[in-house]
Amino acid sequence: MLNWPQPNLKLSELKGKLVLIDFWGTYCGPCINNMPHLAELQKEFKDQIRVVQTTTEDRKTVNDFFKLSKLDTLNLPTATSDKITKAYFPHGSIPHVIWIDGKGKVVGITRSEYVNKKNIERILTTGSLDAPVKKDITDYNTHVPMLSGGLGSYQLDPNMIQYSRTFLTGKMDGMPAWGNYSYRTNQSQPIIVGGFNISISALYSSALVHQAKIGEKSFDIDNYCLTFYDRVLWKAKDSSLFYWSGRTEESWKKVPDDRKYFTYELVAPAEDSLTVKQTMLEDLNHNFGKLLKIKAGLEKVRMTCWVLKLSNKKSKKLLLTKGGNPYFDGKQKSPFVKVVNTPISRFVTFWWIFNFNGRETHPIIDETGLSMNEKIDFTFEADMKNMDQMRAGFKTVGLTLELEDRDIDMVVIRDL
To answer: Is the whole-model pTM more than 0.70?
Structure first.
């Protein structure tokens, strides 16, 4: 012990006093800056308290440091080479202060800022301390990524997220193939976007699906069509990594899984919900730029498209719903195509997903002019997977579906 009449100090010798054990180190700036304050409190409360400093550093190192910094005049009892006390009170950071009352009971474990006159007086008068317990995680590993176990026993609370965090890896065996997900429990919760075990083009489509309407709070279902295979143009040299519309499964299976499937997640604070997809795009471009020398963006491209229109001015009036429970069957469980009290764009989107996405090379666009609030009804007989039958059926209810050239938003992937 330094600054103590005996070579050792037993806590039993301090019975009846409030004991403050201050863990510190000569390398710890906050510890050093707090020493004069601790000495002042010791002087003010005299025999009612005893401040004891402890460090694992050796006696010579501490003694030389005290003399050099002129802190030896504070005369605070200091234990050196003390690993025993640290074993009793394990911690991950200093300053670390243990509060022990006159009966030998630990009544507080705090950071140094809670060591003040008010808290000392409270313990001396009431026996209790009104200060948060200092919780240190001691099993963390800085050589392991935080999201891969580096946090040890620390439980990450999603509500604590103040800045974006991302996770990108290859195929995760045992996980499903699930793309373009976004999730949060309420408007104040962090937003999560990403996908499991999906292709590069699917990840980019997920990032760009809202970019055409960035800044708008309402979801535009027409914009969701950017996730379709026919809305992606792969301009990079290595086309083997691209699952294009019409590509055979046999061809796709020949590409190694670790080259074609990726898992990605981005978690961002609630206030970034309108820009989270832009952040995702920038992050994917950064990572795939390094890994594969590619980048992606949203571009206007002249494409031959399937264009859905009203046949004439009377068509809208004939199509508008007469009410009833909303219904449509995108997978077709009967010979009839039936839509009740449903927006035309919603039906078209899901009809395309279940029947033509990955098969048809021409994108589909809705030019009926019917909004999401203008619900429609129609029924006709057709096979949903047969384009000719669907076109004929649309004509019977006042709609046309024809191939025409249009400048549309496309997900374009290029070499750097």
So the answer is: no
